[in-house]
Design brief:
Shape: globular
Mean pLDDT: 91
Strand order of the largest sheet: 1-2
Strand content: under 5%
Radius of gyration: 20 Å
CATH architecture: Orthogonal Bundle
Largest sheet: 2 strands, antiparallel
Low-confidence stretches: none
CATH topology: ABC transporter involved in vitamin B12 uptake, BtuC
Oligomer: single chain
Helix content: over 70%
């Protein structure tokens, strides 16, 4: 392969991995605090829709690029946070089965975005790529790592920041404690339910950023059901990454490389039917699930509501 092909594949892999990484970080925040979150798909979809529609309306109002994109991203992140708050209220406050609560969010998002969808909506454009001086001129890695949109840069920063937060701060220690043994944490004076609320809402906000990436940075448009299972893939790869930010990011990159290979095979004119080529990323996810999920050890109290005595 020539250099241009390598750069193209690496770019595709990193961009495909971005929403998966953000979705996995959302799951890490929730599950490390003891709350299963299968509503990531719905949080991403709802946020993608509200972020896009904000971009549509502000474009029509003639807003300049910076306030328009800032408002759109903030609305998407707020939508994700509110979805996380709904999940927290149902599963933590009212002790609804956490799988059911997440499913409700997924169905609600699919129904609402389908109902309010405006076909043919036009925006003034999507988030621009930002080239970092000097670093973007490095051969191969420069165009891949240092010539991207702001949400992708934010994702890379978040992977490092969440790792530090979880494993090198008091907050992270308390979060991991309530996911492993909430009774012991409660005995030490930690407010378990408040910690769970904050973590689930924070995770929802990050899922909102993933939705914003899809419609504001990746494609610049919205389609019904456009998340196409990315939330569920993020959960699977979060488990493969053993509930750690760097592990989840590495697993997301593996998925991204499968997407890049899928696209490249079509460019190379491989005679396999395109439906089979399109299955490659999902088959890889199934292999990961079958081969590694059974060996991963989740937080000991995840999925079980905590009753304060």
């Amino acid at each position: 392969m020539d250099t241009q092909t390598i750069v193209s594949m690496l770019n595709t892999a990193l961009r495909a991995a971005t929403p998966i990484t953000l979705g996995a970080l959302c799951g890490i925040f929730s599950e490390r605090s003891g709350v299963v979150n299968i509503g990531i798909e719905g949080m991403m979809l709802m946020s993608a829709f509200t972020g896009f529609m904000t971009n549509v309306y502000t474009s029509g109002a003639g807003w300049a690029d910076f306030p328009r994109f800032t408002a759109s991203i903030l609305v998407a992140v707020l939508t994700g946070a509110l979805s996380g708050a709904l999940h927290a209220v149902l599963s933590v406050r009212f002790k609804v089965d956490q799988i059911i609560s997440g499913t409700v969010i997924n169905i609600l998002a699919l129904g609402m975005t389908g109902y309010f969808y405006v076909q043919g909506a036009i925006t003034a454009g999507r988030l621009p790529q930002i080239a970092i001086p000097l670093l973007s001129d490095i051969p191969i890695l420069g165009p891949v790592l240092f010539r991207n949109g702001p949400i992708l840069y934010t994702t890379l920063i978040l992977v490092v920041a969440v790792h530090i937060l979880l494993f090198h701060t008091v907050w992270g220690l308390r979060t991991r404690a309530i996911g492993e043994h909430p009774r012991a944490a409660d005995t030490l004076g930690i407010n378990v339910h408040r910690m769970q609320f904050i973590n689930v809402i924070t995770g929802g906000a990050i899922a909102g950023l993933a939705g914003a990436f899809l419609t504001l940075e990746a494609v610049g448009n919205f389609e019904r059901g456009m998340t196409t299972g990315r939330g569920f893939i993020a959960l699977a790869l979060m488990i493969f990454g053993k509930w750690t930010p760097f592990g989840a990011f590495g697993a997301a990159l593996l998925y991204g490389f499968a997407v890049a290979l899928q696209n490249q095979l079509q460019f190379w004119g491989v005679t396999i039917p395109h439906q089979f080529i399109g299955m490659i990323p999902y088959i890889l996810t199934l292999i990961v699930l079958a081969g590694f999920v059974g060996r991963a050890r989740p937080p000991a109290h995840v999925g079980r509501p905590y009753e304060v005595e």
